[in-house]
Design brief:
Elements (H helix, E strand, L loop, with lengths): L10 E2 L2 E3 L2 E3 L2 E2 L3 H7 L6 H12 L2 E6 L2 E6 L2 H10 L4 E2 L8 H4 L8 H11 L5 H21 L5 E3 H18 L6 H21 L3 H4 L7 H25 L6 H8 L5 H35 L1 H15 L13 H13 L6 E5 L3 E3 L2 E3 L4 E4 L1 H4 L19 H6 L18 H16 L2 E5 L7 E3 L3 E3 L4 E6 L1
Parallel strand pairs: 6-12
Antiparallel strand pairs: 1-4, 2-3, 5-6, 7-9, 8-16, 9-12, 10-11, 13-16, 14-15
The structure holds protoporphyrin IX containing FE (HEM).
């Protein structure tokens, strides 16, 4: 894990301070860079710069706070798996809590284990197989509503599609018109996200609702209203459809304010985690296919050969191998979960370094997935990187779109199946072409979104 450090006044080499040994990194506090506007607000550019300059591990400070950025599979494994007990998400997800509350993504320890255990049955293979029919039904609905030659924001379409899927599969609810309300409110919050994370003490200020935060609260209230309607309707019906929502209701029988709030947090977490990520993955995949016609032809050939004009079903998913590889390669280049953070409870060692408690550790799928050491010619879109042989040779912890260790994504199998079913259903009829002049830029918010949407023309195949 050798690291060559550029020599200049801005950088500092590895450094001993008391018991601690810090990795090389930025000489000055990050606030200094921020104030001098030397670092753009885009954290991906900062991470890329750290990786290019320092390689595997870089250290910097934000105020008094130590931060290390990791870009090596061994370090990543240490934090997510080997020393996982020493790391919590708290603080790194503090701002997300303003929206998600204490759901599975943000909770810790006993509360997290209880939530994960309660939800687990909804993600079992057998249950997931039952969701396939709904996914294909929803995809076919949108497929048949498109018209040849029309231009659409495919990012918005994918959001509505995956919202309907998650509502019907995991929450046994048909949202229909409410989908637009929900998606609009979540878009509003995403639009405010950069502002929220830059704003000091936003969690506290939110109670006073200054401009900007008032818009956040309004959007959050709209989301809450939909979620509470859903919870109340389920409770009132008294029916147990075996959905995730029923499991959550069973684990939280009380109907007092705190229990309702907790239920709301759990529901909203799965909603957001379960649709935003998949929708973004699909939007980026349509874009990448439109830019790589040879891969698109291979994909179409497989869809035609395997499905022979029939709609896909759960049993056929494993035969749509190339389609899955297309999605895998898309998740490499545009990982919807583009970075993860952890917070150290105690002092810890990483390789040659020894770091203090309360250090924040940052890891970025976006950066590691594009490292030429692990993915030669990294910007080339090549689904063959995910052939069984190529995968067997690849070093572990160089590709982790779904995270790793105990906090690994609970929805991973569901996401793969949903992606493959939706891609293959839509591609039976259509190919999508980027509208000339449409700007495509990745915007790292809570997820990696196409900043200007994805305007594409629908063309018959
Ligand atoms: C392409 C789609 C998806 C991607 C890229 C993705 C990515 C991730 C990643 C990286 C994590 C770990 C975060 C961390 O350790 O800090 C995670 C956790 C999680 N994901 Fe996903 N996810 C996807 C789809 C889904 C779906 C479909 C669901 C549910 C329906 C879901 C629910 C969750 C939940 C609840 C967690 C928290 C798990 C825990 O902390 O125990 N995700 N996801």
């Amino acid at each position: 894990m050798a690291t060559a450090v550029r020599q200049s006044g801005l950088h500092k080499p590895p450094r001993q301070q008391g018991n601690y040994r810090f990795p090389p990194g930025l000489q000055r506090n990050l606030l200094w860079f921020a104030l001098r506007k030397l670092r753009p607000a885009n954290p991906i550019l900062l991470f890329q710069d750290l990786a290019d300059t320092y390689g595997d591990i870089a250290h910097y400070k934000l105020g008094h706070h130590h931060i290390v950025f990791l870009n090596h599979p061994e370090y990543i494994r240490e934090v997510l798996v080997v020393q996982n007990d020493n790391f919590i998400k708290e603080r790194t997800v503090q701002r997300t809590k303003m929206l998600l509350g204490e759901g599975m993504i943000t909770s810790e320890g006993v509360a997290h284990r209880a939530q994960r255990l309660a939800a687990q049955p909804a993600f079992h293979r057998q249950r997931i197989a039952e969701y396939a029919g709904v996914m294909v039904e929803e995809a076919a609905l949108i497929r048949d509503s498109w018209r040849a030659g029309e231009q659409r924001d495919i990012a918005a379409d994918m959001m509505h599609l995956t919202l309907n899927v998650v509502a019907r599969t995991l929450f046994a609810t048909d949202l229909r018109q409410e989908v637009y309300e929900l998606a609009a409110a979540i878009n509003r919050i995403m639009g405010l996200y950069n502002f929220l994370i830059m704003l000091p003490a936003a969690e506290w200020l939110v109670h006073f609702r200054p401009p900007g935060l008032a818009a956040f609260v309004r959007a959050r209230n709209r989301i809450d209203a939909v979620v509470y309607r859903m919870i109340d309707a389920h409770r009132k019906s008294g029916l147990d459809r075996g959905s995730l929502l029923d499991l959550m209701l069973a684990a939280s029988p009380a109907n007092d304010k705190a229990s309702r709030q907790s239920l709301r947090d759990q529901v909203i977490t799965i909603f957001l985690a379960g649709y935003e990520t998949v929708a973004n993955a699909l939007s980026w995949t349509w874009y990448l296919l439109s830019q790589n016609p040879d891969c698109e032809t291979n994909f179409h050939n497989e869809v035609d050969r395997v499905l022979g004009g029939r709609l896909p079903a759960f049993e056929g998913v494993s035969r749509l191998r190339y389609t899955e590889n297309v999605m895998a390669e898309s998740l490499r280049l545009y990982p919807p979960a583009w970075a993860m953070g952890r917070y150290a409870r105690n002092d810890f060692a990483l390789g040659d370094y020894f770091l203090p408690a309360r250090t924040t550790v940052l890891i970025s799928q976006f950066i590691t997935h594009r490292d030429p050491r692990y993915f030669p010619d990294p910007l080339r879109f090549d689904p063959e990187r995910f052939s069984a042989e190529a995968k067997a040779q690849r070093r572990k912890f160089t590709y982790f779109p779904f995270g790793a260790g105990v906090r690994q994504c609970i929805g991973e199998s569901l996401a793969w199946m949903e992606g493959v079913l939706i891609l293959s259903t839509l591609a039976q009829k259509w190919k999508l072409r980027l509208v000339p002049g449409h700007r495509v830029e990745a915007q790292p918010l809570i997820t990696l979104r196409p900043k200007y949407g994805m305007r594409m023309q629908v063309e018959p195949r």
